[in-house]
Amino acid sequence: MSTHVPETETETDTEAETEVEHSEPLAPAQEERMRKKAEARADREERARQEAAERATGDDDTVHLKVFRFDPEVEGKQEPRFDDFHVPYEKGMTVLDALIYARDTFDSSLTFRHSCRQAICGSDALFINGRQRLGCKTQLSDLDQPVRVEPLPHAEVEKDLVVDMDHFYDQMEAVEPYFDADELPDGELDEQRQTRENREKVKMSTRCIWCGACMSSCNIAAGNNEYLGPAAINKAYRFAMDEREGTERKQHRLNILEQENGVWRCQTQFSCTEVCPKDIPLTEHIQELKREAVKSNLKFW
Amino acid sequence: MSQSYDRGLVEDFGRWREFSAGMWAWVFHKFTGWVLVGYLFTHIAVLSTAISAAGQTQAIAAENDVYTTVITALESLLVVRILEVGLLAVAVFHILNGCRLLLVDLGIGLDSQDKSFYASLVLTGAIVVASVPTFLAGVFG
């Protein structure tokens, strides 16, 4: 049984998060995204104002959710279907809040993953209104109704909104996602310092929360199970671009990436970059690794 | 072990409304690429009539050699004139989007990739519209 009390859960974290990031110097890409977010926020506030006005006139303010249901273990539920839920709307309610309310109030068999509810754990990537989004980071006021909630595409559905993530995790492990320097410092307690510039370079790539949204949105990964996928390549980027690891280790990483189903499968559709809930410029990272791979194979200069 | 349910592909064209700019660029680039490959064969077939026409100086001077007759016959068809406009559209888009992809490969302006896609679409449209008088000259006369 869930311990969540829906009444007290208003999601303000996503907004706080974007405000904090304003303090650092921003890349043009980041600025652009921030501007879009600010616009979205203004839009949201406008809608909230309208909704408040509507609430003053009528009092039946509910959100209509259409949720994908499927349970292979119950005979009557083996045929996938959509269930309708009408959840009372509260200001700042996210899709995840609504799902939690629906589960706790209407149907305790509704199954979905969630944990931190603040876009850090990466458990609740869902296909909401035709797009991969984090349930906890998506405001209901931003969506057209009815809100369609489906499990992530291109993954096997286990039950309701839960998909099998094993393949995604396998791909993530395949790029050896851990720091492994060629040489360790002499003293046992010596730190392995990174320059500020280098940290800035890998900054965005470190923000991956392993939610699988990019992998699910990728057309190529859908048709080719051996393709590493945007998340894994981004993970590899984070370590390959880390100057502390040394050339030998970097060469080893590039050897993994430049194989047939590595970086070269990417056809720059930008789907992953569009859906990433942490705004990681995935395509940019993949393209940079392509250039690195070419550079490491050109021996004549 | 529970059995899983396969829901098909998101890329089904039934969901085209959900495609983003980058996806459309990819779809169009593939499509125009295949059209150009197809055109290449027709192009070679038509041009190869010049082989049998070669050397027939008299026929060429009288403008009734194989090559000239084939070309004039084709150009007199309205369908061919309209297809030529289509071919130009396909080629121009493929060229412009190819330049866009070149920039993407070099890592230049990846944040405005959607804008450069729209720009190539608009530019293609403008060039095609401007070419219509040339391609359809005398057809309706």
Automatic annotation (TrEMBL), chain A:
The lineage of its organism: Archaea, Methanobacteriati, Methanobacteriota, Stenosarchaea group, Halobacteria. It comes from Halobaculum gomorrense. Keywords: 2Fe-2S, 4Fe-4S, Iron, Iron-sulfur, Metal-binding, Oxidoreductase. Its cofactor is [2Fe-2S] cluster; [3Fe-4S] cluster; [4Fe-4S] cluster. CDD domains: fer2 (cd00207). Residues 206-280 form the 4Fe-4S ferredoxin-type domain. Pfam families: Fer2_3, Fer4_8. Residues 64-169 form the Succinate dehydogenase/fumarate reductase N-terminal domain. Belongs to the succinate dehydrogenase/fumarate reductase iron-sulfur protein family. Residues 19-60 have a biased composition (Basic and acidic residues). The keyword 4Fe-4S applies. One of its GO terms (biological process) is respiratory electron transport chain. PANTHER family: SUCCINATE DEHYDROGENASE [UBIQUINONE] IRON-SULFUR SUBUNIT, MITOCHONDRIAL, SUCCINATE DEHYDROGENASE IRON-SULFUR PROTEIN. InterPro entries: 2Fe-2S_ferredoxin-like_sf, 2Fe-2S_ferredoxin-type, 4Fe4S_Fe-S-bd, Beta-grasp_dom_sf, Helical_ferredxn, SDH/FRD_Iron-Sulfur, Succ_DH/fum_Rdtase_Fe-S, Succ_DH/fum_Rdtase_N. Transmembrane segments: none annotated. Residues 8-18 have a biased composition (Acidic residues). One of its GO terms (molecular function) is electron transfer activity. Pathway: Carbohydrate metabolism; tricarboxylic acid cycle. This is Succinate dehydrogenase subunit B. Residues 1-60 are annotated as: Disordered.
Automatic annotation (TrEMBL), chain B:
The chain crosses the membrane at residues 31-54, 66-96, 116-140. One of its GO terms (cellular component) is membrane. One of its GO terms (biological process) is tricarboxylic acid cycle. Pfam families: Sdh_cyt. Gene3D superfamilies: Fumarate reductase/succinate dehydrogenase, transmembrane subunit (1.20.1300.10). GO terms for molecular function: electron transfer activity; metal ion binding. Keywords: Heme, Iron, Membrane, Metal-binding, Transmembrane, Transmembrane helix. It is found in: Membrane. This is Succinate dehydrogenase subunit C.
